[in-house]
Amino acid sequence: MAAAGQNLSIDPDRLWDSLMEMAKIGPGVAGGNNRQTLTDADSEGRHLFQKWCEAAGMTMGVDAIGNMFATRPGTDPDALPVYVGSHLDTQPTGGKYDGVLGVLGGLELIRTLNDLNIKTKHPICVTNWTNEEGTRFAPAMLASGVFAGVHTQDWAEDKRDAEGKRFGDELDRIGWRGTEEVGARKMHAMFELHIEQGPILEAEGKDIGVVTHGQGLSWTQVTIHGKDSHTGSTPMPMRKNAGLAMARILEKVEEIALSHAPHAVGAAGHIDVYPNSRNVIPGKVVFTVDFRSPTLSVIEDMETRLRSEGQAIADAMDMQIEFEKVGGFDPVTFDEGCVTAVRSAAERLGYSHMDIISGAGHDACWINRVAPTAMIMCPCVDGLSHNEAEEITKDWAKAGADVLLHAVIETAGVVA
Ligand SMILES: [Zn+2]
């Protein structure tokens, strides 16, 4: 019997060849990919994935929102499957690895088990979640969100792209609406391998990020009412400069986030100034403060302080201020057992690793609501992602897929 020992490894060349083969579908203009969800290229990528899965002896199931589930049977007919996977869709100017590594790393894991004739108690199911990217049809992680009961299927299917095309119609058009009820599958566990999309692992010289949490976020829209007046003829003491009030509040935003270092972050990325004219003092500003942290109480504290300190600044300047919460996403704490399986796999295999918090959203963040879930991250060059220049090394891909293999077979149980 082949044990889950140190020598058990995926085939890095085969994994790499599959990544490069998939990248030929929906090529970008600068060496990356444009394989947006529910396009003809998406359909072609799905067909290739299905062909590979069937060649590896798996059975493909597709649900009514296009999520693909390729299953390798286990020895226990009553055991729930261990899921692995991510997404094959890309940004319009996306890379070759974001999402794809998690799906094809899952496929490589199955090919490796087949080569070594290793049987597992639990089935293993490799998944491609529909529309993770959310560029063509917002929001991101749409179909995994429906699967996890966060969104209704009708709501998702009514989403429209920039040309007014409906998600549900496009799913039918490319022929990937399956018959399974969305979310009906039950999972023993789920593991998602993904590139980091940030600079930490490379800077720290680590092969593996053991993802313990996903950042939560809170968006508060702030409106300040001052008074438009001439920038030349209004004396300084008589001004109600809403832009200045915003500047003072943004200093506070920085201070508030830094007071929860190192994990909390805060900034205003969206700012509208009215009337936005060179010689008019801003009479109104509207901006959105984005706070993020892996801890819910920290997010709540940052929101509360923004409101009280923002109100104090506006009062002192004799201006009206309004706060409106316009978006939010609670932090995710991944399953302790699954996280431990990832960390001990990295340890056993001798890969350098560190615990890390995912700054971006992933399908695993939704699936964590319905099944024990964890994520494995591998570095990417300069932390660059959502960019055609996104790059990883074959060694990083191997490390990530090896840790995935070991975490999964430990969870699925090797049968002698
Ligand atoms: Zn992704």
Automatic annotation (TrEMBL):
GO terms for molecular function: hydrolase activity, acting on carbon-nitrogen (but not peptide) bonds, in linear amidines; metal ion binding. It comes from the Bacteria. Signal peptide: none annotated. Its cofactor is Zn(2+). Gene3D superfamilies: 3.30.70.360, Zn peptidases. InterPro entries: Amidase_Cbmase, Bact_exopeptidase_dim_dom, Peptidase_M20, Peptidase_M20_dimer. Zn(2+) 1 binds at residues 87, 98, 194. The keyword Phosphoprotein does not apply. NCBIfam families: hydantase, PRK09290.1-3, PRK12891.1. This is N-carbamoyl-L-amino-acid hydrolase. It comes from Jannaschia pohangensis. The lineage of its organism: Bacteria, Pseudomonadati, Pseudomonadota, Alphaproteobacteria, Rhodobacterales.
